[in-house]
Predict the 3D structure of the following.
Amino acid sequence: MTFEIKKTDGKARNGILKLPNGMVETPVFMPVGTQGTVKAMFTEKLEEIGFKIILANTYHMFLRPGCEVLDGFGGLNNFMKWDKPILTDSGGFQIMSLSKLTKIHNDGVHFQSHIDGKKFYLTPKLSMEIQNSIGSDIQMVLDQCIEYDTDITLVKNAMSLSLKWAELSKKSFFKKNKRKLFGIVQGGVNPDLRKFSAEETIKIGFDGYAIGGLAVGEGQKLMLQTLDYTVPLLPIDKPRYLMGVGTPQDLLEAVRRGVDMFDCVMPTRAGRHGLAYTSNGKINIRNSKYSKDHSPINSNSLCPVTSKYSRAYLHHLFKSKEILGSMILTYINLQYYDDLMIQLRKAIHDQKLDETMNQIYEKWDKKENI
């Protein structure tokens, strides 16, 4: 088996995902390394924190450094000196985020590069070829991701196109080195479309199943409602991946509903903008009240970085626009996210998820004002 569920607590699962470049315990958060780097982090620092898997992006790696360079290095692992698993997004998110530079067709998408204006045609086959050059352990089918929209026709059309591309992606998938291919369930926040998409995606058959098209403007309430009726539709014996999510609260609530895998730019982006995540809530280190504060971000943290630097020093770094400030807070945030997942895995294993989540929420309720 490539995915084994060790323990459950309600709908929540604690499992082991076996991949070509190592084993990953779930639930797991994957730092986003879009262009072969998690921003403001050395690769060895990711290992130091304890991460076992990161995410990279097909669209961006295709533009820079390109498949020729990646092939020459034998894949992204060698290129960036990361010897653990990598998951790659297929480029579907860029269809939405760079929509002004795209034109969608039945069998692919015309892109105009956001870097130099060069045009190329991204098809499911090309997406698989790029991901093969990257050499990622988990590869995603090409899908059409759209922003939250109440127009049922637009949502249905995007879902239908995603299903077609999922079949084409599987046909073009390079089945070597025991790599995995995940399907993506779309359908917006419509229960009937989600059900149809899940059923049809499962019929195609994949190594794991992602829930796409959420955290795109619908709000947390609708997102969680969508998970309530989508997650139970997915196979019990396959990993479940919620794409592009999210806040610490999003992670808790999705784990409670049976999701196994997550990725999001939030902890790194927040770190670069002066926002720190801690077990006691969020801290906006740019706030002037920290200018003379001798206390660290969190004196109770076992993380040597979180408990080392004073808030006054970090405040100074951001006010002075020093790069070190972004690096320190990025480290702190990623450490917090990893610690949170460790805590949830242990809670599921010990059958204490509700108790643990209540304790986490109680600390957040006493959080400092941002």
